[in-house]
Every structure is written in C-alpha cells, then in structure tokens.
Amino acid sequence: EAGVAQSPRYKIIEKRQSVAFWCNPISGHATLYWYQQILGQGPKLLIQFQNNGVVDDSQLPKDRFSAERLKGVDSTLKIQPAKLEDSAVYLCASRRLRGRNTGELFFGEGSRLTVL
Amino acid sequence: AQSVTQLGSHVSVSEGALVLLRCNYSSSVPPYLFWYVQYPNQGLQLLLKYTSAATLVKGINGFEAEFKKSETSFHLTKPSAHMSDAAEYFCAVSRSQAGTALIFGKGTTLSVSS
Fold first, then answer.
1. A3, A88, B79, B92 - which has most CB atoms within 10 Å?
2. Cβ–Cβ contact A22 with B under 8 A
3. Is B43 in contact with A98 (Cβ distance < 8 A)?
C-alpha cells in the first residue's frame, strides 16, 4: 500500500510570511496527526484528527497555526504569520482505527521549514 | 501525564558490539510503549511495540526491548551493531494502543564505527 504522502518536502520563507503543508494519509486510516520536530528534539504533537473531527489540538499555537481535514482524508497545516522558532520538520502520520496493528503510526517523510 | 526520558542523547559503538539505548517512562495508567527509528531526511519507522502481552518484545532488524514495570524502563538492545543501524532512535508512550497520540522522547543518536 502507498505510504503517507507529504508536500512540499522543503520550504524556505521569511518571517511573517505564510506557508501551507499538505498530507495525504494511507487509504482507510481514520486517524491523522501533525507533529512538529525541532532539530535535536523528539516530535511534538500539534493536532490529531479522527475522520474530519479534531480530537486534540491542545498544543497547537492557534494564533498562528491552523489545520483542517475537511473530507476526512487529506489534511492541510497552515502557519500565518511564521516566526523564526517555527523552523522545524512537520511530520504527518496516520493510524488505522480498527483491525490489525491499530497501534502503529505510519509517518510521512516530513516537510522541512526554514524561516529566515 | 505521560512522558518518556531517553538517557544519553548520543551513543557510539563499534560494529559488532552490543547496542543499548535507554528509555524510562512515566505513566499513571498501564502504558503502551514504542521504539521508532529515523534515518536522515526520512520519516519515523516503527521498530517494535509493547502492548501488555509479552514483556520481551522482538522487533525488526534484530532489535528487541524488555518492559520492566519495577524499573519503569523499556530499553532497546541489539546484540551486534551493524553500520546500517546508525540513525536516530525515539522511545514513545501512549495511553492506549489505538487512538491516542504518542508522546516521544528527545531521541538518541546511534553512531556505529568500523
């Protein structure tokens, strides 16, 4: 089966500009996550969706970050306006809700953001 | 609240030597524990997971981990390191097997020298 797809792989912007990242999860995976991975740190959860509903967005900086998953399939994460500290890799992951191996998160290759 | 602590941000071993990456967890409920590996410029890949069945868990690429409740540990081991094992390793904890998000440690970089 195809893996989690993310785009773009790399993005360089100046502070105060906006950026959007796209994720297409594995087909049939109801749960989708966006993680932020700052250099030298482990991934930190930003938001979790189940189908098209938000399950957990407690760590999402809502003054500048937004995310949606309108049809319960692909998702978009937006940052507006970007700050220097937003430089990180943004990882998308998906998970099967029922059946075999529900515990495993499948990760995309990530979108690396550099804010200048 | 749940958390994991990975002891040692960088571990260096020689090829053929034992690999030991340490992870301690904190959880108010029986935890589900995971080890992921990340190669440069790639996403994370599951190595193995503990879901309250056997305490000794075998994963891919010859890795295994043992869940020790008394020590709140879930250390990752491999008897003989290979050059291809050089990567970043993350320990993670979850409240349940399905649904809830994983909380990751800060990671341990494994270097393997010939």
1. B92
2. no
3. no
- A110/A93 Cα distance (integer angstroms): 9
How many CB atoms sit inside 10 A of residue B70's CB? Answer: 5
Q: Is the pLDDT of residue A112 over 80?
A: yes
Nearest to A43 among B32, B99, B104 (CB): B104
- In eight-state DSSP terms, residue B75 is E
* Nearest by Cα to B107 from B13, B36, B43: B36
Measure Cα distances from B87 to A62, A86, A94 in Å: 33, 24, 22
pLDDT value at A81 more than 90: yes
Tens of pLDDT along chain B (114 residues) come to 789 999 999 999 999 999 999 999 998 777 889 999 999 888 899 999 988 778 899 999 999 999 999 999 999 999 999 999 999 999 999 876 666 788 999 999 999 999
CB–CB of B43 and A33 under 8 A?
Answer: no
pLDDT of B21: 98
**Contact yes or no for B22/B77 (Cβ under 8 A):** no
Residue from B3, B10, B44, B90 whose CB has the most chain A CBs within 10 Å, to mutate: B44
Minimal CA separation from A110 to chain B, in Å:
6
Residues in chain B with CB shorter than 8 Å from the CB of A45 are 101-103
